[in-house]
């Protein structure tokens, strides 16, 4: 039996309770030192909310990059709908809010002593340490693919602005009757619907600029996120231009020949394409793996009540690197995890316990610039971990009207502006 509207709104109130000014968990001011490594959606959100709810706590954010391209809406840049500047963020607003932003790599991290050493020899000690290193690629399953060939066959799947622009430029330069191929990894990976939104918006680009071109999706999975909604949209807008070949048909890519721009599939097919986007299998960022924060899965196990590592006390792992259970690896999930972590740390430093909350996840994708689709899910704590509440989510209707689809596309753009502002403190210029 599904949840009533009132129960869903009660779940939403759990998120609202994590708002910037509504914590109220303790009359005792929190004091201490928190060091956050990684300035993406999880780390930046945690830093911003800690400063707001526990102003006496010293918060240091360590991030090696001055500017980051966001994963959300990167596909609009790939498809030429927005410039790269529209999805570029920095940490100036966090610094202005009192976060000590340090631009540096981390030389060493001791999770037992909760100390971070920087390349210049400086050492930062913390009462709580937050690690948000994002993902790394597992290069081994795809023979011939690695860092040396990503310029020729871009992944465009991280905060690297150059990768996203490279893929966009390759699409612009391809022949009018060319072939685009996207190699899609097995689960789990960052942003489950992302490859299919990318295919959709590339399909839109081809319709507009390369009307005789074709797009192949070579997938390591049997099924994919929002499959029915994407397939219906592809059939309506792109006809046979987009072809999906899944794992049962031998679609998983097992090798690449970068020099000949060729992919080799598990089914033994050799697929040559003018533009090749390889999205490799993924694991937690190296920092988490190198300092004993991950297990045999190569992801970091955490207690969802606080996102504290189950391997080291007062060390928290956020975002794509952690085992989020049913929560997707996404900017939305990382943002919410950052809020939970900030409130839990502030409560701990004040000598209290943060009780946790029910959460809602909403995920938007664009099939065309004016055809948006969405899914949502409610999660509740079950012991130390979140579990999806059965029948508590929802999806866009397959038979949505043109106006409703355009409305959801508008919601997607509004959601992006709001989550960037909520995370980094700055609006964006997304169109």
UniProtKB/TrEMBL annotation:
Residues 358-424 form the Flavocytochrome c sulphide dehydrogenase flavin-binding domain. Residues 33-152 form the FAD/NAD(P)-binding domain. The keyword Flavoprotein applies. InterPro entries: FAD/NAD-bd_sf (IPR036188), FAD/NAD-binding_dom (IPR023753), FAD/NAD-linked_Rdtase_dimer_sf (IPR016156), FCSD_central (IPR049386), FlavoCytC_S_DH_flav-bd (IPR015323), FlavoCytC_S_DH_flav-bd_sf (IPR037092), SQRD (IPR052541), TAT_signal (IPR006311). Residues 167-280 form the Sulfide dehydrogenase [flavocytochrome c] flavoprotein chain central domain. Keywords: FAD, Flavoprotein. PROSITE patterns: TAT. This is FCSD flavin-binding domain-containing protein. It comes from Spectribacter hydrogenoxidans.
């Amino acid at each position: 039996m599904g949840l009533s509207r009132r129960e869903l709104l009660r779940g939403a109130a759990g998120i609202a309770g994590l708002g910037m000014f509504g914590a109220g968990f303790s009359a005792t001011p929190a004091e201490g030192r928190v060091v956050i490594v990684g300035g993406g959606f999880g780390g930046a959100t945690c830093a911003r909310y800690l400063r707001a709810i526990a102003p006496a706590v010293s918060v240091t954010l360590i991030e090696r990059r001055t500017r980051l391209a966001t994963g959300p809406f990167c596909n609009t840049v790939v498809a030429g709908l927005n410039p790269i500047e529209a999805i570029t963020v920095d940490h100036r607003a966090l610094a202005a809010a009192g976060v000590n932003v340090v631009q540096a790599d981390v030389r060493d991290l001791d999770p037992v002593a909760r100390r971070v050493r920087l390349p210049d020899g400086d050492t930062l000690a913390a009462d709580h340490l937050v690690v948000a290193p994002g993902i790394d690629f597992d290069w081994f399953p795809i023979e011939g693919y690695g860092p040396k060939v990503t310029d020729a066959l871009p992944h465009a799947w991280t905060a690297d602005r150059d990768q996203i622009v490279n893929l966009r430029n390759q699409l612009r330069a391809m022949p009018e009757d060319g072939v685009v191929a996207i190699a899609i990894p097995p689960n789990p990976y960052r942003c489950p619907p992302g490859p299919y939104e990318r295919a959709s918006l590339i399909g839109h680009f081809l319709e507009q600029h390369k009307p005789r071109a074709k797009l192949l999706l070579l997938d390591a999975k049997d099924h994919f996120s929002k499959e029915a909604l994407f397939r219906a949209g592809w059939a309506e807008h792109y006809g046979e231009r987009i072809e999906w070949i899944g794992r049962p048909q031998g679609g998983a890519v097992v090798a690449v020949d970068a020099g000949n721009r060729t992919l080799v599939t598990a089914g033994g097919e050799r697929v040559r394409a003018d533009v090749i986007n390889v999205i490799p299998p993924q694991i937690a960022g190296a920092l988490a793996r190198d300092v004993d924060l991950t297990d045999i899965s190569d992801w970091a196990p955490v207690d969802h009540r606080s996102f504290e590592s189950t391997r080291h006390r007062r060390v928290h792992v956020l975002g794509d690197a952690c085992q989020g259970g049913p929560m997707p690896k996404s900017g939305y999930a990382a943002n919410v995890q950052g809020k939970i972590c900030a409130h839990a740390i502030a409560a701990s430093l004040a000598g209290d316990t943060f009780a946790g909350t029910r959460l809602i996840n909403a995920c938007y994708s664009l099939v065309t610039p004016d055809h948006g689709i969405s899914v949502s899910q409610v999660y509740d704590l079950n012991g130390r971990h979140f579990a999806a509440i059965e029948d508590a989510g929802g999806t866009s209707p397959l038979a949505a009207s043109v106006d409703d689809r355009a409305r959801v596309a508008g919601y997607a753009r509004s959601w992006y502006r709001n989550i960037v502002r909520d995370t980094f403190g700055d609006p964006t210029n997304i169109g």
